[in-house]
Design a protein that fits this description.
Elements: H1 12-24, H2 31-44, E1 48-52, H3 55-65, E2 73-76, H4 83-90, E3 94-97, H5 109-119, E4 123-129, H6 138-147, E5 152-155, E6 163-164, E7 167-168, E8 175-179, E9 192-196, H7 199-208, E10 213-215, E11 218-219, H8 230-261, E12 276-277, E13 283-286, H9 291-301, H10 317-323, H11 329-337, E14 338-341, H12 349-365
Parallel strand pairs: 2-3, 2-4, 4-5, 5-8
Antiparallel strand pairs: 1-9, 6-7, 6-12, 8-9, 10-11, 13-14
Length: 368
């Protein structure tokens, strides 16, 4: 039984929406993008929504818009996809890594406090990541950010619809960035979104993605072409309607795994703090031994999996050349132990059971 790690939840409604755009003859950024922005902003709870070409450009533009520039220092996590740090570096800024809580995989507020106590006056922003669809501890993070008057950018690329104490992530910081890559909880093919409650910041983001222009052929500063197409937005509008149901299915799949796997001593199942309503972009287990052996076993059995992330960002060569050596033991340990298994909403019961049966078999036989 071949089971993929992810699968876009697409059907005839998305196809019909794209066909309507093609039939209209207007394919670039237009009214469908505007409608998608309005609906997504309302869903998350932000006043300003700016659609972009992908999640990385959304992060980059959010940072540029708040003024991040050459040699500025921006705190972020070393345990995430490279775009979180590369967006900082594309601004000419320097990522300052903060170790993670090994239970949640997110930035550890205690580690963040130590960084700010030591170097708070020179930190220009904090870029947090709600990894695997689990919200960061926002009360502690926002309290520290406010204490030091540092803006927070939320990387929500994996957390569409996730909630912290009943409030959706992406609505806490100065700005937030979402990705709509095909593996995400909702997709537009490629695409991203910047959210903010700051009207002036929103206007600046909109100009930055459109060649520094708010009126055609009149350019007020150097900008970029990072616009979303109406084709992508048409897909996104349909996907947004499905998002809550898809997320609920992910949580149900995760609950099944928790029930079946949590009693296996060799495996650590995901921790969900009381404050969080996660959306399980990934269901990530930890194995302190034999992680790579289980991955090889899954390869043999054609079970999709992901090791997110095998090389922490501070160990990536081009980043290490800039930031030098650092001590992030929790990120290093997690990079050796994590393995994500299929949790997407299109999984059938027999597929979930098959994954569980294989893991149980491996843990009984593979460790002997």
């Amino acid at each position: 039984m071949k089971i993929p790690i992810s699968k876009p939840n697409l059907d005839e409604e998305e196809k019909n929406a794209v066909q309507a755009v093609l039939d209209s003859g207007f394919l670039a950024q237009g009214k469908r993008v505007a409608k998608f922005e309005e609906d997504f902003g309302r869903y998350i709870g932000a006043k300003q929504a700016i659609a972009t070409s992908n999640g990385t450009t959304a992060l980059f533009i959010a940072l540029k818009a708040i003024g991040i520039s050459q040699n500025d220092k921006v705190v972020t996590t070393p345990f995430t996809f490279v775009a979180s740090a590369s967006s900082i570096m594309q601004c000419g800024a320097i990522p300052i890594f903060c170790d993670i809580d090994p239970q949640t995989f997110n930035i550890d507020p205690d580690a963040l406090e130590r960084i700010l106590k030591k170097d708070g006056s020179s930190i220009k922003a904090i870029l947090i990541v709600h990894l695997y669809g689990l919200p960061c501890p926002m009360d502690e993070i926002m309290s520290l950010a406010n204490q030091y008057s540092i803006p927070v950018i939320e990387d929500c690329a994996q957390a569409h619809g996730a909630e912290y104490r009943g409030k959706k992530v992406g609505s806490f910081g100065k700005a937030s960035a979402f990705s709509f890559y095909p593996t995400k909880n909702m997709t537009t093919g490629e695409g991203g979104m910047i959210l903010t409650n700051d009207e002036e910041l929103g206007k600046k983001c909109r100009m930055l993605i459109n060649h520094g222009s708010k009126k055609r052929y009149y350019h007020e500063f150097l900008g970029y072409n990072f616009r979303m197409t109406d084709i992508a937005a048409a897909i996104g509008s349909v996907q947004l309607k499905k998002l809550d149901d898809s997320n609920q299915r992910r949580r149900a799949n995760a609950n099944f795994y928790n029930h079946e796997l949590s009693s296996i001593p060799k495996i650590e199942t995901p921790v969900v703090p009381d404050y969080a309503l996660p959306v399980f972009h990934q269901y990530t287990i930890k194995l302190k031994q034999h992680r790579d052996d289980l991955a090889s076993f899954f390869d043999q059995k054609e079970i999709g999996y992901g090791i997110y992330y095998p090389v922490p960002l501070h160990q990536q060569k081009f980043i290490h050349q800039i930031v030098g050596n650092g001590n992030y033991p929790m990120a290093d340990a997690c990079s050796r132990e994590v393995l994500s298994i299929p949790v997407h909403p299109l999984l059938k019961k027999e597929e979930l059971e098959h994954v569980v049966d294989l893991i149980k078999y491996f843990c009984q036989e593979g460790f002997n």
